[in-house]
Amino acid sequence: MNDVAETLDPLRLPLTGERLIEASAGTGKTFTIAALYLRLLLGLGGSAAFPRPLTVEELLVVTFTEAATEELRGRIRSNIHELRIACLRESTDNPLYARLLEEISDKKQAAQWLLLAERQMDEAAVFTIHGFCQRMLSLNAFESGMLFEQQLIEDESLLRYQACADFWRRHCYPLPRDIAQVVFDVWKGPKALLKDIDRYLQGEAPVIKAPPSQEETLASRHEQILARINQVKQQWCEAVSELDALIESSGIDRRKFNRGNQAKWIEKITAWAQEETKNYQLPEALGKFSQRFLAERTKAGGVTPQHPLFVAIDNLLGEPLSIKDLVLTRALSEIRETVAQEKRRRGELGFDDMLSRLDTALRSESGEALAAAIRTRFPVAMIDEFQDTDPQQYRIFRRIWRHQPDTALLLIGDPKQAIYAFRGADIFTYMKARSEVSAHYTLDTNWRSAPGMVNSVNKLFSQMNDAFMFRDIPFSPVKFAPRNQSLQFKVNDAPQPAMTLWLMEGESCGSGDYQSYMAQVCATQIRDWLRAGQTGDALLTNGDSSRPVRASDISVLVRSRREAALIRDALTLLAIPSVYLSNRDSVFETLEAQEMLWVLQAVMAPERENTLRSALATSMMGLTALDIETLNNDENAWDAVVEEFDGYRQIWHKRGVMPMLRALMSARNIAENLLATAGGERRLTDILHILSLMRFSAPTRRRDLAGGGGG
C-alpha cells in the first residue's frame, strides 16, 4: 500500500484511473470538486486532462444526503456561471478562474459550452447513492432484471417495527414464565429489541461468524445455563467447609485478600448457592474464588490455593450466561425475511433494496454488460463523502470503474471521519480502498480556521503514532491559510489560546459529579465571554476589523443527550438560551415533540374528545387538572374549545401549518406558559426547534427519485 499522499493541485490532477483524495474539514473539498468539474466540462489540464470534454449528464457526482446533493449542485452551477462570465470578459479576480482562463484557447467557444452546461444543470448527474442506484436499475431494466415497476418507499422503519413485534409475539409470548423473565431482563419489549438490531436490519445482511446451532432453542439454552449454574452451586455447597483452611494454608496475600472480606464473601455466596436458580445473576463475590483471581492474589513464590471448585468457577465466568446471541441471531434473520416478504407482497422497494439489486445485477452473468452500459453513460464518477461508503457500495463502484481505460473514479473523503460508525461510516471499507487505490492525494491547507486552532490540532494529534487507532488512517498535519493569519479571539486585548484543556481538581470522583461540574464550568465560561462581548471586551478580530462575540458564535460538543441536558440546564440557570442538535438523538423523541403531536392531532380532529383532551392536558397549554375537569362539565365551554381548534384547522388548510401554529401559540400563551415552569426556557427552545424543522420538512421534489433529473 502506498502511504505517501501527494499534495493535490486540482488543476493538475490526472483525470483518468482511480484516485483517492483525502480532505480534512476546511481544506476546500467542495472547491476541489467544483474545480475538477469545470476541467472535465472543458477538457482542461493538458496531459492530465480527460481525453475529451464531458457534458453535465456524463459527469457523475455521488454523495450521501439530499442536502449535500443540492449544495453541490448549487456550487457547481454557480462556478459554471462565474467561469462563463470570466470567459466573456477574458479576465477575472478569482485565482481559480484565472488559472483556468490561461488554459482556454478559445474563450468564446468555452463560454458557449458553459452556457449549455448551465442550462442543463437540472439534468446534471448529481445523485445520492440510492438515487444513482435507482436510476441505473430503471435505465438498464433488462440487464438489471427490473422489468416490473415497483413502488419506492422511503422509510421502512414501520415495517421493521411491525416485523419485530411479530417476532416478539411468535417467540416470546408463548415462553414459560421463567424464560420470559430472562428475556424481559434484557429487553422490555419489541421496541427495545429493535433498538439493538435496527442498524443491522438495514443495508447488506451482516455475517455472523459463530451463529448458534439451528436446532438450539431458547428452552434448551435456558436449561443448559441453569445446569451450569446449579453444578457450581452444588460444588460450592460440598466444598465450602474446606475453603477457610485451604486458603489459610496457602500463600495468599492477606493485604489483598483479608480474612474479614473472605468471611463476608463466603457467606454471600453460600446464601446464593442454597437458593433456587431462577435467573442468570451471579454474586459479585463469586469471582473472588476463581482460580485465576486467587493466583493473582498469591504472594510471589507462595503456594496458590487450588481446588476443582475454583476451576469450575473460572469456567463458569469464562463463558457468557446469556440467551442474547440466540435471540439476536434469530431476530435478525426472521425480521429481515418478514420485511422482504411484506415488500414483495405490496410490490414495494426500499432504498437498500436498490443497492442490493444493483450489486446482484453487477455480479450476474449480464453484470459486465450492465457495468459497460453505466460506464458509457458516466465515464467519470466522483464519490463525495467516501468515508461513509459501506462494503456493498464500494463493491458497486469498483465493479463498474475499476481498471477501465478512458474512465475515472475519484474517491473524495475525510479518513478521520471514517471512525464515526454511528453516522454510517465504515473504517474497514475505507482502509480497503486506501490499500487498493495506489494514487493518493491530500488537501493540505485549512482555509477555514485560525492559525492557532490549526497548529493546536496538529500538535494534539501528533503526540502519538496511531492517533485514530488504525495505522492505515494516519494523521496528516495541515497548514493554515495565509489569509487567516490575523483571525483571533481576544479578551481584554489579550489573544486567547486556541485550545484549553479543563481538568477537575481532586484525585477522583464519579462520572456524574464530574459531568455536572464540567457543565457548570462550561456555562460559566460562556457567560463570562458573552458579558465581555456586551461591553466590547471579548472580540473576534480579523486584521483591522472586529466585532463582539455573540451566543451564536459558540457551540458545545457533547457525547449524548444526557450531557447536552446537563450543559443546557447549566446555561439556563445563567439565562443563556441554547438548542440541542444531533444526528443520533432526534428532538422528535422529546416530550415537547410528543406534546406537539397531540396538539396537531387535536387541530386535525377537534371533534374527537379524547384527542382534544390529550392536547389540552399538555404542559404547553398551561391548564390544570381542575381546569380540564371544569371544561368536561361545561358543555358550552367545551364546545367553545372545539370551535377554537376548528378555527386553527381552517387556518392550517388555507395558509399552512406554520401560520396555524403561530396563531395557536399566541392565543394560548404557550411561550408564557412554558417560561413559567422549571426548565421552561429550554423546553420552549425545543419547541421552536421542532417548528423550524417542520417548516423545512414540507414535501419537496426528490430529484434523484423522479424521472426528470439527478439530485
Structure description:
- One of its GO terms (molecular function) is 3'-5' DNA helicase activity.
- This is DNA 3'-5' helicase.
- One of its GO terms (cellular component) is exodeoxyribonuclease V complex.
- By secondary structure, the chain is an alpha/beta fold.
- It has four domains: 222 residues, Rossmann fold; 194 residues, Orthogonal Bundle (Recbcd, chain B, domain 2); 88 residues, no CATH class; 109 residues, PCRA, domain 4.
- It is 52% helix and 8% strand.
- It has 28 helices and 15 strands.
- The strands form four sheets. A seven-stranded parallel β-sheet has the order 1-9-2-8-7-3-4, sandwiched between helices.
- Strand 10, helix 19 and strand 11 form a beta-alpha-beta unit.
- Helix 2 runs antiparallel to helix 4, helix 15 packs across helix 17 and helix 25 runs antiparallel to helix 26.
- The longest helix has 31 residues.
- The two termini are 35 Å apart.
- The C terminus is likely disordered.
What's the quick description here?
The chain is α/β, with parallel strands linked by helices and 711 residues long.
